[in-house]
C-alpha cells in the first residue's frame, strides 16, 4: 500500500530538530574555537551525563568521537580513516566508531594538524581523554589505544549497572552507589590537579539541576513515542540525542 | 528446574586500577563479600575464614606446581612441548584442585625422566593473547619447526603466576590478587606520563619471560571479535619490538578448519627467525 494511501504510516519531522540539531554542529565549532584559544578540550565518550556535568563545571569543552564517527560515515569520509586504522595494525572487526577515531588520530598526528578531509572542521587535538564503561565492555580499551598517538592524560569513568525499578540489584545497590560517588570525587580531584583550579560546586549543582530537567523532558518525549502512530521519527531521535550533552 | 533454583549474581569487577587508589579495591571487596554471603545463603552453609584459607593454600600449591612445570621449558630443547602443557592446563580447568596437584606431580616426575631426544627447534616462541584451550593451534605452530616455550594467556601464566597472598582476611588476598596481580588486558592500568611508560607499566613482565625462557620471537594471537585483545595488539607489538624481538599477529576463528593458512604464516615467521640465528 503506497504511503499516500495510508497517511497514518507517515511521521512528520519535528520542528524542534531545527533548533536542536544545530546545537550538535555548534559543539564541534565550540571545540575548535576552544582549542585555538587555549581552553581545555577533552575527547569524551558518552557517559550517561555523569562526567559531562563535572567537566563542564570545570570549564572543559567536550568533543565526542563517537558522534564524530557517525558524522564521518554520513559525510562519506569514514573509509579513509578506517583503512588507516587497519594499516596501524588494529583488527577490522572492532567497533567502527573506535576505528574511525583511531584512524583519524593517526592521520592528525602524522599531519600535525586536523586532516583536511575531516568534516565539520574536524576534532581538535585534545588535552584530555575521558572514557567510560557505558554501554559496552571493551570501549575503554579504545581510548587506551589512542595513547599510542596522544600522550595526554586519560581518565576512565566506571559505569556499573546497579539496576532500576524491576531490575534493581538489591544486594549490591548501595555499595555500587557509594563506589560511583567515590569515583566521581576522585575524578574531580584529578581535574583540579590537571587544570590547577578548584571545582565550583555551586556551578556543578546548577549543571546537575539542568541535567535532570533535560533528562526529564527527554524521558517524557520518549514516553510519547509509545503512541501509535509514533509521533517522533527515529531519524529525529538520533539526530538530536547528542544535543542532550550540549544543553547542560 | 526453576530459575529460582539457580544462583544469579552480577559481579561487577572494576575495569580501572590506579596504583595507590583503594576505591576500586574497596568496592570489589564489597562485591566479593556479597558473593560470599549469597553463596552461603544459597548453599546453606557458612564459608569460614579457616575453610577459605585452606582452599586458597590448595590453589596456591597447584599454581606453584604449574610454575614448576613451566620451568621444564627453560631447557633447550624444552623437555615438555607447548601443546602438552596446554593439555595439562585444560585438564586442570575441569578437575578439583586436589586431583590437579596429583596430576601435576605425576607429569613433572615423568617429564624429568625424559632425555634430550628431540633436536633443537629453529625458534623458541612466546605466545600472547586471548584464552587458548585449543591445542590444535599450538600443535600447528610447533609442527613447523618451533617450540612454544612460554605464554602470556588467560589459561596460562596470567592465571597461574600470581599466588593469593596470605592476609588476615582471605577475601582481601583474593581481591588483591584478582585486581592488582593478574596482568590481563581487561584491566586498565594507570597510563603513566608517556606512551613508553604506559607500555612498560602494562607489559614489563614480558621482558622477564623473554629473558628467562630465552625467547626468539612472539606470536600475538587473538580470537576474532575479542575486542579486548584486538585493541591491545599494536601496543604490545611496539613493546615486543622494543625488546628487539620479532612478532607475528594471528587472528583466528577458534576452529581447526582455519589453521592451515595460519600454519603457513607461522612457518615463514619461524624461517625468518632461523635465518637470523
Question: What are the SSEs and their pairings?
Answer:
The complex is a heterodimer of chains A (248) and B (277).
Chain A: H1 17-36, E1 41-44, H2 50-57, E2 61-63, H3 65-75, H4 78-87, H5 96-111, E3 128-132, H6 139-146, E4 154-157, H7 173-195, H8 201-224, H9 234-241
Parallel strand pairs in A: 1-2, 1-3, 3-4
Chain B: E1 16-17, H1 23-43, H2 49-71, H3 82-92, H4 97-112, E2 123-129, H5 135-142, E3 146-153, H6 157-160, H7 170-181, E4 188-189, H8 195-203, H9 205-212, E5 217-223, H10 227-242, E6 247-252, H11 259-276
Parallel strand pairs in B: 1-4, 2-3, 2-5, 5-6
Helix pairs in contact in B: 1-7, 2-4, 3-5, 5-11, 8-10
Provide an overview of this structure.
The complex is a heterodimer of chains A (248) and B (277). Helices cover 52% and strands 6% of the residues of chain A. In chain A, strands 2-1-3-4 form a four-stranded parallel sheet, with helices on both faces. Chain A is built from nine helices and four strands. The N terminus of chain A is likely disordered. Chain A has 248 residues and is an alpha/beta fold. Chain A has a domain of 168 residues: Rossmann fold, CATH 3.40.50. Chain B is of the alpha/beta class and 277 residues long. Chain B is 53% helix and 12% strand. The longest helix of chain B is centred in the first third of the chain and has 23 residues. Chain B is built from eleven helices and six strands. Chains A and B meet through helix 6 and helix 7 of A and helix 1 and helix 10 of B.
Amino acid at each position: 500500500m503506497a504511503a499516500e494511501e495510508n497517511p497514518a504510516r507517515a511521521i512528520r519531522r519535528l520542528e524542534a530538530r531545527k533548533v536542536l540539531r544545530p546545537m550538535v554542529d555548534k559543539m564541534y565549532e565550540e571545540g575548535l574555537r576552544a582549542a585555538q584559544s587555549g581552553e581545555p578540550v577533552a575527547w569524551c565518550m558518552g557517559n550517561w551525563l555523569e562526567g559531562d556535568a563535572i567537566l563542564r563545571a570545570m570549564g572543559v569543552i567536550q568533543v565526542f568521537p563517537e558522534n564524530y564517527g557517525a558524522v564521518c560515515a554520513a559525510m562519506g569520509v569514514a573509509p579513509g580513516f578506517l583503512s588507516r586504522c587497519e594499516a596501524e595494525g588494529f583488527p577490522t572487526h572492532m567497533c567502527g566508531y573506535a576505528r574511525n577515531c583511531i584512524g583519524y588520530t593517526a592521520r592528525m598526528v602524522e599531519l600535525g594538524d586536523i586532516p583536511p578531509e575531516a568534516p565539520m572542521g574536524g576534532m581538535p587535538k585534545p588535552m584530555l581523554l575521558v572514557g567510560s564503561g557505558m554501554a559496552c565492555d571493551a570501549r575503554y580499551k579504545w581510548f587506551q589505544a589512542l595513547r599510542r598517538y596522544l600522550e595526554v592524560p586519560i581518565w576512565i569513568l566506571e559505569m556499573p549497572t546497579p539496576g532500576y525499578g524491576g531490575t534493581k540489584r538489591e544486594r549490591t545497590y548501595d555499595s555500587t552507589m557509594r563506589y560511583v560517588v567515590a569515583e566521581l570525587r576522585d575524578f574531580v580531584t584529578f581535574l583540579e590537579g590537571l587544570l590547577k583550579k578548584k571545582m565550583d560546586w555551586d556551578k556543578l549543582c546548577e549543571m546537575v539541576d539542568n541535567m535532570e530537567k533535560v533528562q526529564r523532558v527527554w524521558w517524557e518525549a520518549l514516553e510519547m513515542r509509545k503512541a501509535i502512530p509514533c509521533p517522533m521519527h527515529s531519524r529525529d531521535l538520533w539526530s538530536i540525542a547528542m544535543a542532550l550533552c550540549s544543553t547542560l | 528446574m526453576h530459575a529460582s533454583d539457580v544462583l544469579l549474581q552480577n559481579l561487577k569487577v572494576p575495569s580501572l586500577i590506579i596504583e595507590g587508589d583503594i576505591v576500586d579495591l574497596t568496592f570489589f571487596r564489597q562485591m566479593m563479600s556479597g558473593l560470599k554471603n549469597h553463596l552461603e545463603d544459597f548453599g546453606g552453609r557458612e564459608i569460614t575464614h579457616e575453610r577459605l584459607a585452606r582452599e586458597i593454600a590448595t590453589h596456591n600449591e597447584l599454581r606453584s606446581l604449574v610454575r614448576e612445570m613451566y620451568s621444564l621449558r627453560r631447557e633447550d630443547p624444552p623437555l615438555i612441548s607447548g601443546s602438552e602443557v596446554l593439555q595439562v592446563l585444560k585438564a586442570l580447568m575441569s578437575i578439583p584442585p586436589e586431583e590437579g596437584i596429583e596430576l601435576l606431580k605425576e607429569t613433572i616426575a615423568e617429564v624429568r625422566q625424559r632425555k634430550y631426544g628431540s633436536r633443537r627447534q629453529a625458534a623458541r616462541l612466546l605466545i600472547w593473547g586471548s584464552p587458548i584451550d585449543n591445542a590444535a593451534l599450538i600443535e600447528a605452530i610447533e609442527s613447523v619447526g618451533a617450540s612454544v616455550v612460554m605464554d602470556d594467556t588467560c589459561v596460562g601464566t596470567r592465571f597461574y603466576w600470581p599466588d593469593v597472598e596470605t592476609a588476615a582476611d582471605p577475601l582481601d588476598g583474593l581481591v588483591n590478587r584478582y585486581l592488582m596481580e593478574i596482568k590481563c588486558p581487561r584491566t586498565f592500568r594507570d597510563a603513566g606520563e608517556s606512551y613508553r611508560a604506559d607500555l612498560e607499566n602494562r607489559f614489563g613482565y614480558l621482558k622477564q619471560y623473554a629473558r628467562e625462557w630465552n625467547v626468539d620471537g612472539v606470536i600475538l594471537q587473538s580470537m576474532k571479535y575479542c575486542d579486548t585483545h584486538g585493541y591491545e595488539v599494536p601496543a604490545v607489538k611496539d613493546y615486543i619490538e622494543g625488546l628487539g624481538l620479532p612478532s607475528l599477529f594471528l587472528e583466528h576463528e577458534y576452529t581447526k578448519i582455519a589453521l592451515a593458512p595460519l600454519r603457513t604464516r607461522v612457518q615463514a615467521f619461524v624461517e625468518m627467525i632461523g635465518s637470523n640465528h
